[in-house]
Amino acid sequence: MVGDEPLLLVGADVVTLDDARPHASALLVKRRRIAWLGAVEDTPTVPGVRRIDLTGATVMPAFVNAHSHLTNVGLALNAMDLSIAESLSDCLGAVQAIATVTPHRVIWAGGWDETRWPEHRAPSADDLARAGDDRPVMLVRADGHCVVVDRTSLSALPIARSRGVERGPDGRPTGLLRQEAAQVAQRWFSAEMPDGVLSEARSSAAEHLVTLGVASVHEMGGPHRMGPADFDAWLQGKWPIEVVPYWGDLDLEFVVERGLRRVGGSLLLDGTIGSHSAALVEPYVDRAGSGQLYRDSAELTEFALEATRRGIQVALHAIGDRAVAQAIEVLEKVAAEVGVAQLRRLAHRIEYAALIQPEQMVRLARLGVVVVIQPATDLSLGVDGGAYELRLGAERARTSNPLSSLAAHGIPLAFGSDSVVNLDPWRSVDAAAEPRVGLPALERHLGIRAATLGGRTAAHQANVGVLRPGQRADLAAFEHPADPEQRRCVMTMVAGRPVFEDGRVHA
């Protein structure tokens, strides 16, 4: 266990992200807070201080992952990441490999994306029955909103009345599940997983994040994700990382009973573009339909109004432009009841907002809404020939995720990773700074602020973020931070404690 002794960090370029003092070369931490920062030659004398030499490194505010599903991440880290599969046959070969090494009965893996495969088709229930040797198999799509299960599990799942069961020309379910059906499947499979496997997955995810310079993560739980038992495990457990929990349901009493002031995150107004379940104004180009809204506007408004009156922040998942419109209309109705000032104080959130119009940005800015985006995944989907182009057509795909425009409208941005396995926050910064056809890139310094300070704004954490005396000491040190090939995290500090140092994670 790392102790609470005073810590003096020297030799590094300290990038504070504080406009009043952007740089320093030494920093003192006492009682979990930054006690002093300045030039090395002005370092105060402190009895019992431990001196940490970070010569050549850059110290900066630690990263915040503002949207993740950590247990799913841990399960993927401890199994096989299907995002590396380059074809359907690769994916099924990976399932066969998992089946030979997994000691427990259930096979759970994720990260597949059929839009990158030459076959352009998802695995089927029969495919998984063969590859998994007739064991229960569930593969979660890269966007987390679509799953495919084997034939036997498909028959056992209680999804007869659920929306989102895809059927073939013969009327039989194909194994591909969206919306409610996907949620039922994930709950069913999580109940089948041994407790020890889930516990190990949680630890793996938390420990992996701190090795990347991440000090805080917003865990997006919910009844349609891993359920209340998993959510409470994150809430009650002791982790090397700070976990900020969001419960994705309309049940306000659930969060109040746990002493939480946040709700939503995975409170789904729609699905995702890749799985054809995002709610769009114009239809998809590669299949009939334009997705659908999952929630009734009147019910959402009543919920958001009650939460706002109780001082509880609301986070709404809205990807398609029709879902974004619904979210804005709901929040504007709430503002009409309680006043815009109250909404701005709570800084409600919209997760994703992948398709959004300029006039909607003006309305969001007025309401003080934070937009949380996953640049490393979402922006890659919007490139030429990517999944968004397949689903939306080239013109709409090139207008997706307009980060620079959102920032120009004064909308606070925060970055997350969702449930992808590659959690390196620098990937989000790099992706946001890459110019895309039809859209200007987000300036790099704004991307860094969104990946660090943005998550603090999104979680109402005013006492941590920029590096200045009095703030909680959450920071990270990197070698070669500007070079994607060489950069490396050498230390992560959470609340004044080095939780990752000398290549080791400290609980």
Describe this structure in words.
- With 507 residues, this protein is an alpha/beta fold.
- 35% of the residues lie in helices and 23% in strands.
- It is built from 18 helices and 22 strands.
- The protein has helices at residues 70-78, 88-101, 125-131, 151-156, 179-192, 195-210, 227-236, 252-257, 297-309, 321-338, 340-346, 358-367, 375-381, 387-392, 394-397, 403-408, 425-433, 444-458, and strands spanning 7-15, 23-30, 33-38, 50-53, 58-61, 63-68, 107-112, 137-141, 146-149, 165-167, 173-178, 214-221, 242-247, 262-268, 313-318, 349-352, 370-373, 413-415, 475-479, 488-494, 497-501, 504-505.
- Strands 1, 2, 3, 4, 5, 19, 20, 21 and 22 form a 9-stranded mixed beta sheet that branches. It has a 5-stranded mixed beta sheet with strand order 7-8-9-11-10, with helices on both faces. A 5-stranded parallel beta sheet has the order 14-15-16-17-18.
- β21 and β22 form a beta hairpin.
- α10 crosses α11, α13 (375-381) packs across α17 (425-433) and α17 (425-433) packs across α18.
- The longest helix has 18 residues, at 321-338.
- The protein is globular and about 80 Å long.
- The protein starts with 6 loop residues before the first strand and ends with a strand.
- The mean pLDDT is 92.
* Helix content, binned percent: 25-40%
Count of DSSP strands: 22
Name the assembly state: single chain
Shape: globular
> Largest sheet, if any?
9 strands, mixed
Beta-strand content? 15-25%
Distance between the termini: 7 Å
- Average pLDDT, all residues: 92
What low-confidence regions span 5 or more consecutive residues with pLDDT below 50?
A: none
Structural class: alpha/beta
Radius of gyration, Cα only, in angstroms? 23 Å
Number of helices: 18
